[in-house]
Amino acid sequence: MFERLNAYRIMWVLVLFDLPTETKKEKKIASGFRKQILKDGFMMFQFSMYIRHCPSRENAEAHIKRVKKILPEHGHVAILCVTDKQFGEIEIFYGKKPSEVPIGNQQLELF
Fold first, then answer.
1. DSSP assignment of 52-93, as one string?
2. Was 40 annotated as part of a binding site?
3. Can you give the pLDDT at residue 111?
4. pLDDT-based confidence at 109, cuts 50/70/90?
5. What is the per-residue burial (b if ≥16 Cβ within 10 Å, else e) of 43-58?
């Protein structure tokens, strides 16, 4: 069954985290976590907030599972999934001036 891509089916996965970085070992663990989510296709939105565009909820759930498998033992990690429509309503400010909303990647999947 073919489902048309639309702003309510396309998802964004947000990973927000606060990991301890006081010791050399903790810094290595935090850096490793960041590197692994980058390897999975996430991009940095803010220093401890990474986002990933997913064409469907099923695809988003697969990436959420991968993040859960690499969760560090210590620190706080939150995973949030929103529709493309919801993400498009974001307002970004640098100082007091609004900024342009970053345009997500348009991807065409053939299979």
1. EEESSHHHHHHHHHHHHHT--SSSEEEEEEEEHHHHTT--EE
2. no
3. 54
4. low
5. eebeebebbbbbbeee
| 11-98 CATH choice from 3.40.30.10, 3.40.50.720, 3.30.1140.32, 3.30.70.240 | 3.30.70.240
Cβ neighbours of 103 (radius 10 Å)? 7
Structure tokens, 19:
């990991």
Which residues are CB-neighbours of 75 under 8 A, at least 6 positions away? 17, 18, 19, 20, 30
Residue ranges per domain, the chain? 11-98
Tens-place pLDDT, residues 61-72:
999 999 999 999
Amino acid identity of 57? R
3-state secondary structure of 97: strand
